Structures are given as structure tokens and as C-alpha cells.
Amino acid sequence: MYPNCPKCNSSYTYEDGVNYVCPECAHEWATTPEEEEVVVIKDANGNVLQDGDTVTVIKDLKVKGSSSAVKQGTKVKNIRLVLDATDGHDIDCKIDGFGAMGLKSEFVKKI
Predict the structure, then answer these.
(1) 1-34 has which CATH code?
(2) C-alpha closest to that of 79 among 59, 109, 58
(3) Is residue 44's pLDDT more than 80?
(4) How far apart are CA 5 and CA 28, in angstroms?
(5) What does the alpha-carbon distance between residue 99 and residue 92 come to, in Å, rounded to a whole number?
(6) CB-hemisphere CA count at 13 Å for 45?
(7) Global pTM value
(8) CA-CA distances (angstroms) from residue 56 to 23, 37, 42, 76, 110?
(9) Mean pLDDT, all residues of the chain
(10) Strand order in the sheet with 91-95
(11) pLDDT confidence band for 104 (50 / 70 / 90)
């Protein structure tokens, strides 16, 4: 069974040498699986972040459900990156006085 056409979703695709071909829209694509797209998460200054890094918060951040805020300059140790973050919070961490929370990488800088 050949995969459906990624362009028009036709099920009538066939293999032609090193490519798949769709007879309905004439789209061709490689039969070899492409390399997975590597997700790179960067801080506010463009530095690449990795699991275990230490970052600093660059602006006061309101905490949902609390009357307090994470203050600018707060040091956050041992971050964990979330590669499939749907809400934009691509860093999981624990902050003293607040506990576990998610941060957006655009509001931190790597130390």
C-alpha cells in the first residue's frame, strides 16, 4: 500500500523509481522518509536552550491564579524543554516560592 498524496490526498499513488507519483495532480515526492524536523528553542537573545540550562526571567510575569508575580531577574535552574507546546509555554521548571510552572522562552535569557 502506498501513502496518500500529500498535496491532494489521492489514494491512487504509485512508485516510480525513487519517487512516489500522484496521477491526479502530478505531484512527486521522495520514497525515502525525510529526516525529522529538529525543533530548536531559543531564548530572548537568540541563544539555543537545552534541557538542564539555567535561565533568568527578563521581565515581571504575572502568575495565573495568584496575586503575586515572578520578578525580573529570577534565576530558574534545571529547565526542561517542551517540544510540542501548544500554548507557547515551551519551558517546564520549578521556581522557588511558586512551584512547577511553564514559561515562554521569549521571556527568559540563558545564563
Answers:
(1) 2.20.25.10
(2) 109
(3) yes
(4) 9
(5) 11
(6) 10
(7) 0.65
(8) 54, 28, 13, 6, 6
(9) 90
(10) 80-81, 91-95, 99-103
(11) very high
State the pLDDT confidence band at 18, using cuts at 50, 70 and 90. Answer: confident
Give the C-alpha separation, 102 to 85, whole Å: 10
- How big is the chain, counted in residues? 111
- CATH number of this structure's domain 54-110, picked from the four choices 3.90.420.10, 2.30.30.40, 1.20.1250.20, 2.60.120.260: 2.30.30.40
CA atoms within 13 A on the CB side of 56: 7
| DSSP collapsed to 3 states, 42-104 | ECCCCCECCCCCCEEECCCEECCCCCCEECCCCEECCCEECCCCCCCCCEEEEECCCEEEEEC
